[in-house]
Amino acid sequence: xxxxxxxxxxxxxxxxxxxxLKFPGAIFGPAEFAELKTYAEDIVKEQYPTGKSGAxxxxxxxxxxxxxxxxxxxxxxRVQDLIGPNxxxxxxxxxxxxxxxxxxxxxxxxxxxxxxxxxxxxxxLLNFTVAxxxxxxxNGCLKYLAGTHKTHIEHDxxxxxxxxxxxxxxxxxxxxxxxxxxxxxxxxxxxxxxxVNVVHGSDPNLSPYDRLTLSARFFSTDNKCFLENFQTSGIxxxxxxxxxxxxxxxxxxxxxxxxxxxxxxx
Length: 266
Hints:
This protein starts with 8 loop residues before the first helix and ends in a 12-residue tail after the last strand. The chain has one domain (9-254): Jelly Rolls, CATH 2.60.120. The protein is 23% helix and 23% strand. By secondary structure, it is of the alpha+beta class. The protein has helices at 9-18, 30-47, 59-62, 67-70, 73-83, 111-117, 227-233, and strands at 20-22, 54-56, 87-97, 105-108, 125-131, 142-144, 157-158, 169-170, 182-183, 191-195, 200-202, 211-220, 240-243, 253-254.
């Protein structure tokens, strides 16, 4: 896969100030990206044969072949620039937003569920997104409210059925009316990252073009994980360590990539 130039101090400062960042250039080489895109499309067809919008959560647990990209240096090196060399992987997802549909992601913070179930000590978590199709304002790309990762904002809205995010609660427009949205427009094979505490969402895709992304949630392993709460909450599989050491001694198991793991299931 391709090379990578480390983030500059100015780019890291921008991420820490705004709570999100677009990476310069393409992420994967052409052949690797083409395979990733095709595999993701096959997964969406299997999960949503009618073509409706939706997410495929717990992705790498259901389709371990996805770890070929999620754990690639092209992603982990960029993550390391932001949270350091000791990296854990919690979960991953595909997000598919079909053309000419009304569903949207209401304003929310990813950290809401983390607080609710007391999963981490809540520092140094980020969400890494790779665009598989064009993502722009017209087809409902991610949009952010800069600086909100430094501010406590209540989830004060009961999320309606049209909400693509299944937290149950969202943040009302009234609560964030003083902020101006920033649309994260990405071309295929470009990527962005956001702090899990920044307010974000996405508009309906009223365009004639589908939107498709791959997301993975990483954390610094100096962030203590409460593994028993992952199990008792029913929120899903526990995190794993993917690079470096388990510095908070959370008893994380390491993901390894034996040949049988890296075999396509579909």
